[in-house]
Amino acid sequence: MKYALVTGGSRGIGRAVSVKLARMGYHIIINYASNATEAEKTLELVQQAGQDGEMLKFDVSNHQQTREAIESWESAHPEEYIEVLVNNAGIRRDNIMAFMPEEDWRRVLNITLDGFYNVTQPLLQPMLVHKFGRIINMASVSGLKGMPGQTNYSAAKGGIIAATKALAQEVARKNVTVNAVAPGFIRTDMVEGLDEEALKKTIPANRFGTPEEVAELVGFLVSPDAGYITGNVISINGGLYT
Ligand code: NAP
Q1: Mean pLDDT across the stretch 120-134?
Q2: Where are the domains of the chain?
Q3: Which end of the chain, N or C, is less packed with Cβ atoms under 10 Å?
Q4: Average pLDDT in the 195-211 region?
Q5: How far apart are CA 169 and CA 160, in angstroms?
Q6: What is the largest CA-CA distance in the chain?
Q7: What is the position in ligand 1's atom list of the atom closest to the CA of 10?
Q8: Atom from ligand 1 closest to the CA of residue 57
Q9: What is the C-alpha separation between 27 and 185, in angstroms, rounded?
Q10: Under a CB-based contact definition with an 8 Å cutoff, are residues 83 and 3 in contact?
Q11: pTM to 2 decimals?
Q12: Which CATH number fits domain 2-236: 3.40.850.10, 2.60.120.280, 3.40.190.10, 3.40.50.720?
């Protein structure tokens, strides 16, 4: 059995990635923060794709909770390891910097950056021992070009891109690849409330992307064919940013 952990797998891009990886033969560990109903829906879709999966609730920004969840999974599966990690959990709390509450600054950075550390660090050693691993970090166009009204989110996503590049160089010899995916506007709960009609005029492809399109890219990066791609950021944005 091959195992993949998708953080924020209950909704949006994480759900589509879970289904894609299930189709590729992975048993999916669906992490979520609070939305058990949506996580169950993802699990059903994974099962419809012909694989089994399980739900694993923890807040990626909480070090102790994350450790306990991963350790309990590991003690239930002493012979197995998680060979694919998709660090996808994320939130946005947009505001212009002049009005940004400290809580919104911290929450976005904690989930993206502390979350990356909390989940990746304990899973890395088994990947190195088994000499195979795939880590995909969900970045954003905001982390590449910076977006006004998203100084917190841009800082977090820029940080995750730098972490991707650094970690990739540490582990490449052991056949563990680390890449980031940088979506533009993708139609999920996260973009609810944005003016899609106005925004799509700024996108050369003239539409928002779908979670399934992002999942296809993640699937390729996970596949054996992508073994020589590491430390990279792949944009998927309808031409929004070049
Ligand atoms: P979404 O529909 O809002 O889903 C967010 C997911 O993250 C949910 O599964 C949620 O779990 C989970 N989550 C949030 N906080 C968490 C925490 N502290 N611990 C564990 N899980 C947590 O978002 P999305 O659009 O699919 O975004 C997924 C990723 O893509 C994010 O990193 C986002 O920044 C990035 N991204 C999205 C877009 C876009 O246009 N949609 C563009 C660029 C990048 P619950 O269901 O339990 O709340």
Answers
A1: 98
A2: 2-236
A3: C
A4: 97
A5: 14
A6: 52
A7: 9
A8: 20
A9: 29
A10: yes
A11: 0.98
A12: 3.40.50.720
